[in-house]
Every structure is written in C-alpha cells, then in structure tokens.
Amino acid sequence: MKSSEDMASKNHTVVTQFFFVAFSNILELRVSLFFLVLLLYLITMVGNVLIIMITVVDPALQSPMYFFLWNLEFLKIGYTSSTIPKMLVNLFSEDKSISFLGCATQMYFFSFLGITECCLLAAMAYDCHPLVICHPLRYTTMMIRGVCLQLSSVSWLIRVLVGVGQTTFIFPLPYCGPNSINHFFCDLPPLLKLACTDTYRNEIAVYTIAVTFIMVPFLLILVSYIRILHAILSILSAAGRSKTFSTCSSHLIVVTLFFGSGIVTYLRPKSSYSLGSDKLLSLFCSVVSPMLNPLIFSLRNKEVKEALRRVMARKIFI
C-alpha cells in the first residue's frame, strides 16, 4: 500500500495554479482599498524615481553615500512592483488565480529583492561608520567608486543565488490541494501551509536563510551604530553631535522600519503566526515603507533638498 507522501508526490502535477483569498467580500471596502493602495503605489514610484534621478544627474551628489541611496531606491521600486500590481488586479477581478510558475517567479523576486535590501542597508551602515564618522577626511579616498561597486555587486550576486535556492526549497514540494493562498502575494509561510507533505526540513532551511540574511546584517548594523553612538558622544559641542548624527539618522529610520517588520514576519515563533495580521504587515512592508523612503531621505537631508531644487529649477527654465 502506498504511503500518503507517495500519493502526494504522484499528485504533484494536480495543482497547476493557486488562488488568492479576497481581502473582503464587501465591494465598497475593496474599492476603497484599491484606490488607497493605488495612490500609495504611485507616490512610491514617483518618489523613488525622483530620488534616483537627482542622485544620478546632480554633480553634488556623486558620492558613495548617494550611490548606495539610488541602489536602495531602485530596490524599493522592484520590491513594491513584485506584489502590488497583481494585488490591485485581484481587488476587482473575479479571477484571482496565479499560475504555478507565476507564483514561483513572484516569490523569487520578492525574496531576492528583500534579501538584497538587507545586505545593502548593512553596506550603507558601513558607509556611515567608520568612514563618515571616524575618518571623515579619508572618506572619499577610502570609499572609492570601485569599492562601492564591489559591495553593491556582491550583494546583488549573492542574493540572486540565495533567491534561487530559497525558491527551490518551496516549489518542488507536492501541492495536491487545497490551492487557496490566504495572502495577496506568494509568500513563504502561506505556501508552506498548502504543501501536502511534511515541511519540517523546508521550514528549517527557510528559517536558516532568514536568520542568516536578516539577523546577520541587522547585527552588523547594530554594531556599526553602537560605535557611531560612541563617536558622537565623544564630540564636545552639542551642535557638532547633532550635525554628526544627522548624517546617518535617515538610514537608521529606514533600518528600523525594514528590519522591524521583517523580523516580526519571518522570525517570530510559528505558534504566533496569524494570516490576518501578516497580510496587514506585508502590506505595510510592500507599500507604506517604500513610500516613506524618499520622504525620509529628502525631508531629513539638506543636500538632497537642495539638489531637488536645482533639478526642478533646470526643468522650469528649459
């Protein structure tokens, strides 16, 4: 007699597509959510594209700090676009399906871009310390463009490989029904729940990746900011302390928003997992956090605001 796992493996090809569970059966609520998310998505796109444009074209912003910044904004555009357009379509469409390959592709890009952002934020923390805070006079020579490109390229390349590995932990599993994903995109926890086999090893592998590529960069950032704080406290004047801390304060806010939501979503105990709360938290990560990025970096950064004025002035006179 065949075991249930053998039967599941045999029926692996039964599920050829998944279906997303609707946010609500109330049309008015779905319409309101559609226009709210669409507005936030458009603000995110415009804001991040604007930051990329001014950091690339303005000569005053041709420094390692802004090289990492436009990389981060580019990541945010991809990170948001991997999930939100499909969600907007599903809010109105009766057909809320996604193909097996489409689901794997969506999860790959979401995971790959999220993990890359973890590493890029760690590289930006390295950019803040020790180069900006402890060795400001040597900053330009130490953080040459080649070093920036190496840090950025290594982050992208490794995360491509990790993204492929993480996706292969999930989609070779047998899926023989049900095939309804209680989420607005193909994320790891809800997909593991749909597999019709024991997923313990897969969960351990995914958790290990999450610890490695969320907690390790987070701890490196934490060490950098402890040393930054120590350097700031050694400055005698209050004005000097304030000016020095403002150099990295925007990065610190973004780190708190991104890693805080990521740790709660992927590293909390399985017993406390809630699909409802995770959908809201993922919505915050996918829309609200990327929308706040350009606002944080522009409103708290005098150089970015001045560059924006120069770019806008050139457009007006042209």
List keywords for this structure.
12 helices, mainly alpha, 3-stranded mixed sheet, 3 strands, globular, single chain, Rhopdopsin 7-helix transmembrane proteins, 3% strand, disordered N terminus, 318 residues
Count of individual domains: 1
Report helical residue fraction: over 70%
Q: Which oligomeric form is depicted?
A: single chain
- In one word, what is the shape? globular
Number of strands: 3
The DSSP helix count reads 12
Mean of all residue-level pLDDT scores = 76
Q: Can you tell me the residue ranges where pLDDT is under 50 for at least 5 consecutive residues? A: 1-12
- CATH architectural arrangement: Up-down Bundle
* Structural class assignment: mainly alpha
- Outline the biggest β-sheet: 3 strands, mixed
Distance between the termini: 78 Å
Looking at CATH, the homologous superfamily is Rhodopsin 7-helix transmembrane proteins
The arrangement of helices and strands along the chain is HEHHHEHHHEHHHHH
Return the CATH topology. Answer: Rhopdopsin 7-helix transmembrane proteins
Range of strand content: under 5%
- Strand order in space, largest sheet: 2-1-3
Query: At the first level of CATH, what is the class?
Result: Mainly Alpha
Write the layout of secondary structure elements.
Blueprint: H1 4-10, E1 17-20, H2 27-57, H3 64-81, H4 84-92, E2 97-99, H5 100-132, H6 139-142, H7 145-168, E3 180-181, H8 188-194, H9 200-233, H10 238-266, H11 275-299, H12 302-317
Helix pairs in contact: 2-3, 2-4, 2-11, 2-12, 3-5, 3-11, 5-7, 5-9, 5-10, 9-10, 10-11
